[in-house]
Specification:
The complex is a heterodimer. By secondary structure, chain A is α+β, with helices and mostly antiparallel strands. Chain A has helices at residues 42-50, 96-106, 111-124, 140-152, 170-187, 198-204, 222-227, 232-237; strands at residues 4-13, 16-26, 31-35, 57-62, 65-68, 81-84, 158-162, 190-195, 207-212, 215-220, 241-249, 253-256, 259-262, 264-265, 273-279, 284-286, 296-306, 310-317, 322-328, 338-342, 348-350. In chain A, the strands form 4 sheets. Chain A has a 6-stranded mixed sheet, sandwiched between helices. A 6-stranded mixed sheet of chain A has the order 13-12-11-15-21-14. In chain A, strand 18 (310-317) and strand 19 (322-328) form a beta hairpin. In chain A, helix 2 (96-106) packs across helix 3 (111-124). Chain A is elongated. The two termini of chain A are 37 Å apart. Chain B has a two-stranded antiparallel sheet. The longest helix of chain B has 34 residues, at 57-90. Chain B is globular and about 80 Å long. The chains are: A alpha+beta, B mainly alpha. The interface between A and B is medium-sized, with 32 and 24 residues.
């Protein structure tokens, strides 16, 4: 096993840079999620790592080996990687056992060892009774597990997953998220996981790299990304924030709704228009003005919806800015009523862009 | 896990070799063709051949005749095929599968065989239909209802075997228009007529236009039917003229010059077809959408079916009947009865006619070799182009498709010119025919396998490679087994195509290298129609056997384009 390092990785199709100067180190044995909306370049990055595409610029190192550069690309079969495809790519003319054992057969492993490893992995993935079925005879979840078993049996240095759960129904998807994490904890392969689903990334990843427009916007632990987003894109994409804007005043404040919103995060330059991210459930509502706390603003309730476990508000502050607020279900303030919002300054995150 | 060190990737030199072979197949004959067209007998540069082409009425007239025939055929085909295609695809026409099968039957009938069958039916004196007419009306022995040896007769017979091209394009397109496109129009208030006018017809229009162009092309490059029907009537088309320029005394330079306009027109028409079909990819619309709703014909159902059957009399029922009749009749032009029923014709063809055995042997050797070589070439080329496996894969795809733009007769001329002189003297051997057949069959085989490769998702190969297989290993373990059905189907269709090829073979055969189609053509010149009927029916039987076999192979898509000759 080894670490994977991307250095200034770029892939252009014509003048369009699909992957644009991406640098990322994936530590040995860790699971990194490439997270982003469709078209952000995450799958192309994965295919570059796999060796299915050649970079226009930049390099990929696995351990101390240079595997991709514009001058030379090691073909995928010599990278000692495994991949789980979005479509699973199970070979329809082979049984489950044949599909799974394929990688070992290629490596000319002796029959006894193949059988032993095959039985072990089929047991782990609960596929033993399906060994002689063909992929066409399996359900979506079963196919997914076959793809998983096929990728794991060769004990790869690096495991690549391309939206592996996107073809499953919601319940199964939730279950498989934890399964992926459990298997990763058991085997500790260096893993790159591509997804557009943030809760999938949150559950599975050691490090999340949020991609947008071919670039990595921000990389860090799930909590880091969630608590300390650096850009508006990340703030909105992860856990859907309210992002308000205003010119910075002083060192830790941004003009907002006729007052000053105290915040932390990015270094502020007085007078410059600054985005500030506020999570929906970090805003407190009260009918009366709270005293002795900063960041209190008068507002009115535009609409509210009872969601059972919580209440979903849309409120409007002075100047017409609307904010979405999630509160406890018992905080019932009727539509049209005046209200005060209060946000702890440590929960207001000034963004770099 | 320790990986063994895989060696050099063999695929690159292999693919380069294939590119070279493809280049040789096409460029060599076309270069000689161009060279001959601008030289005189002594080899000096001249434009006199082209000048003669546009000034000499002996050459100019066939060109005009050809264009007229092609235009008329194209129109007739559209008028017949478009309504039939609609009836079959979009209405509750009874027995619509049978109608489709009948159209397929006229599709696979070699046009020259159809032309000969219509000689049996509508030759002015001996034609069965004319005899029936005289017997019925009591008209004099010199009067006749039809004369197939005429311009009209020729257009009719060509149309009979060209309209399936239009039909297939139109019906397939209508089949694939998702029902919800029409439903969406209905829900917005479009009545049946408005929906047809604004949605269905515009969607099918490109297919019809493309069909018209293909029909034009077929009619223009056909050799067999005009040679059989126009020559007795005393006029020439371009193809027969080119052929006659090679009869004694041969005028190769002039033939080369006459072949070039056909080549250029074909290229232009194919580009137009591509543009029409390519710009709006209606045909690929589809997938998980509802079944199209069928128009209820009501009381018109049965009249519509009868109309279809009457149309199918011309290319299928009547000609097949005439061939069967001639096979078992002592005199080809007499209707079979107890008095003149005989097996002698069959005996004659298979045991007495010495040419049969040789032609059969040659046809089978060429068929098997061509099918094998072609399939191999097409597999590699289709792999390289669908997987974009090497830089310059487009060139390879272009080379494999290019022969589609070379009419058989033009290719025949080019090959004749290339291989009757050093460095390659192949004339008089089966090799030259093999080269011709491979070149002609390659585009269809390539198209077929390209479709096949597209159904094998690239993920399946990549999954194998990431697990450690080289490209060639992935091909052997994953792609080949999945592609087997397409490969078998392609092989079958090339084989059938070889059997019906006439227009290139007619330029290249010698007495030792005759094939069945040439033998049939020869027998027609000597007036031995009974023998032709036997051979023709045998040919049809083999064709149907192979077509049915290939269609039974699961996963085999339609859209096969057999080339007319």
């Amino acid at each position: 096993m080894a670490s994977v390092e991307l250095r200034g990785l770029t892939k252009r199709y014509g003048s369009l840079a699909v992957v644009d100067d991406v640098s990322l180190t994936i530590a040995h044995g860790s699971l990194v999620c490439l997270l982003g909306p469709s078209g952000c370049g995450k799958t192309t990055t994965l295919r570059l790592i796999a060796g299915f595409a050649e970079p226009t610029a930049g390099e990929i190192h696995v351990g101390d080996r240079l595997v991709s550069s514009p001058a030379r690309t090691v073909p995928p079969e010599r990278r000692q990687m495994s991949m789980i495809f979005q479509s699973y790519a199970l070979w329809p003319h082979m049984t489950v056992a044949q599909n799974v054992a394929y990688g070992l057969t290629l490596r000319k492993v002796d029959r006894a060892t193949i059988d032993q490893k095959l039985n072990a992995i089929l047991a782990t993935t609960k596929l033993d009774i399906l060994a002689d079925r063909y992929p066409g005879e399996l359900s979506g979840g079963q196919q997914q597990r076959v793809a998983l078993a096929r990728a794991l049996i060769v004990e790869p240095e690096t495991l690549l997953l391309d939206e592996p759960l996107s073809n499953l129904d919601a319940n199964l998807r939730e279950e498989m998220r934890f399964e992926v994490r459990r298997l990763h904890d058991a085997y500790r392969y260096t893993t790159v996981y591509v997804t557009h689903d943030q809760s999938e990334a949150m559950t599975t990843a050691d490090v999340i790299a949020v991609m947008n427009g071919g670039k990595i916007e921000q990389a860090g632990s799930p909590q880091d990304i969630y608590d300390r987003p650096r850009s508006e894109f990340v703030a909105r994409f992860i856990g859907s924030s309210n992002v308000v804007r205003g010119p910075a005043v002083e060192r830790d404040g941004v003009a907002f709704a006729g007052g000053v919103l105290r915040c932390n995060g990015a270094r502020l330059v007085s007078g410059r228009d600054t985005p500030v991210s506020i999570r929906q459930h970090d805003i407190r509502l009260s009918a009366t003005r709270p005293s002795d706390v900063p960041n209190v603003f008068p507002a009115s309730v535009v609409r509210q919806v009872f969601l059972g476990g919580s209440r979903d508000y849309m409120i409007e502050v002075e100047g017409g800015t609307q904010l979405r607020v999630i509160t406890a279900a018992e905080d019932d303030i009727p539509q049209g009523a005046p209200v005060f919002i209060q946000v702890p300054p440590e929960r207001c995150r000034a963004l770099e862009r | 896990m320790q990986r063994r060190n895989s060696g050099f990737d063999m695929s690159t030199p292999l693919i380069a070799a294939f590119a070279l072979v493809l280049c040789g197949l096409i460029l060599l004959p076309m270069t000689w063709l161009a060279y001959y067209s601008v030289t005189d007998k002594s080899g000096a540069f001249t434009l006199a051949n082209f000048k003669q082409l546009v000034t000499d009425p002996v050459l100019l007239e066939p060109l005009l005749t050809t264009l007229t025939i092609a235009t008329l055929t194209s129109l007739i085909c559209c008028v017949v095929a478009a309504p039939m295609g609609w009836l079959v695809a979009r209405t509750d026409l009874p027995m619509s599968r049978t109608v489709r099968a009948l159209v397929t039957a006229s599709f696979v009938t070699p046009p020259f065989l159809g032309a000969i069958a219509w000689e049996l039916l509508a030759a002015p004196n001996s034609g069965l239909l004319n005899q029936a007419y005289r017997a019925w009306t009591g008209a004099g022995s010199d009067s006749h209802l039809f004369n197939i040896y005429s311009f009209t007769g020729l257009v009719f017979v060509i149309s009979c075997y060209t309209f399936p091209y239009v039909f297939v394009l139109v019906a397939n397109t209508l089949d694939r228009i998702p029902g919800d496109l029409e439903d969406a129009s209905s829900i917005l208030g479009g009545r049946a007529f408005a929906t047809a006018r604004r949605i269905t017809i515009p969607l099918a229009m490109p297919a019809l236009l493309a069909g018209a162009l293909v029909a034009f092309l077929q009619a223009m490059t056909l050799f067999g039917s005009p040679a059989i029907l126009a020559l007795p009537a005393g006029f020439h088309t371009m193809t027969t003229k080119i052929w006659s320029l090679f009869q004694y005394p041969p005028k190769a330079e002039l033939a080369a010059a006459a072949a070039l306009p056909l080549l250029l027109l074909t290229v232009a028409l194919l580009r137009a077809e591509h543009k029409i079909l390519g710009r709006r990819g209606f045909s690929v619309v589809g997938g998980k959408t509802g079944e199209p709703r069928l128009v209820k014909l009501g009381a018109l159902r049965w009249p519509a079916l009868i109309l279809c059957i009457v149309v199918m009399l011309c290319p299928v029922f009547l000609p097949y009947g005439a061939l069967l009749n001639a096979t078992f009749s002592k005199v080809a032009s007499k209707v079979v009865s107890f008095d003149n029923f005989t097996f002698h014709n069959i005996e004659f063809v298979f045991f007495e006619l010495s040419a049969t055995k040789l032609a059969l042997k040659n046809t089978f050797i060429l068929g098997i070799l061509t099918a094998t070589i072609c399939t191999l070439l097409a597999v590699v080329t289709a792999y390289v182009t669908t997987r974009k496996a090497v830089p310059g894969y487009r060139v390879l795809g272009f080379l494999a498709t290019a022969p589609v733009a070379i009419p058989g007769i033009v290719l025949g001329v080019g090959l004749f010119l290339s291989y009757t002189r050093p460095p390659f003297v192949l004339y008089g051997t089966l090799w030259i025919l093999l080269i011709a057949f491979v070149t002609i069959a390659l585009p269809a085989a390539y198209q077929q396998l390209q479709t096949g490769f597209r159904t094998v998702h690239v993920d399946l190969e990549e999954a194998s490679r990431i697990l450690g297989a080289t490209r060639l290993q992935s091909l052997a373990h994953i792609t080949a087994p999945l592609l087997r059905t397409s490969v078998i189907a392609t092989w079958c269709f090339v084989f059938v195509g070889v059997m019906r090829e006439l227009s290139a073979a007619i330029m290249l055969f010698t007495s030792e290298t005759k094939v069945i189609s040439v033998l049939i053509f020869d027998l027609n010149e000597s007036g031995d129609l009974a023998a032709i009927s036997v051979l023709g029916l045998m040919m049809l039987a083999i064709t149907y056997a192979v077509v049915i076999l290939a269609n039974r192979v699961p996963g085999f898509g339609g859209g096969v384009r057999l080339r007319n000759t």
